[in-house]
Amino acid sequence: MKKTTNTLLWLIQVISTVVFCALCVQAAGLIFFSVYHVIDPENSREMILGIDMAQLFSLTKIDFVILYMLTLSIPVLKAFAFYYTLKIFNRLNLVKPFSQEIASLISKISYLILTIGILGTVAFQYSEILDAKGFELNQLQNWWNDNYAYLLMGSIIFVIAQVFKKGLEIQSENELTV
């Protein structure tokens, strides 16, 4: 394999690792904040991760829980998607690239990314409803402004997963005929 290909794959793996770590920190910060809010609600009204939490606390409890769970689930799912991406890099064999494990990981990534897009769309629409009721959630809506990109990306990765599964079938047939 060419040296530039190896270098590019290594660079993508490093970037994926950095993004995975950042998403883990983001998700951990939100989890820590929720626990801290249960313990000390008065002092937890400050900003965390760029979100003014006071605007969330002004919501009803059910609205707060729904919006907070949607806010928390998205970085967690993104972290899982990058975790599976890193697993692909660790198990990828470019001499014989089609394996059941890689096909399964690509499928999982596509489902995760589609779920991120769907949850982002639901969260955005829900925050729009709350915005119409007078709650200002502009900072929070910025977390979901890329939901349609995730829907498109998830769809494309799903198609790639199906092509990969077909490649796996063809590779298996070729091994049997030789």
From TrEMBL:
Keywords: Membrane, Transmembrane, Transmembrane helix
TM annotation in the entry: 7-39, 65-84, 105-127, 147-164
SUPFAM superfamilies: AF1862-like (SSF158568)
Family matches, as InterPro entries: AF1862-like_dom_sf, DUF2975
Taxonomic superkingdom: Bacteria
A Pfam match: DUF2975
Keyword presence, Transmembrane helix: yes
Record's protein name: DUF2975 domain-containing protein
Organism whose genome encodes this protein: Algoriphagus taiwanensis
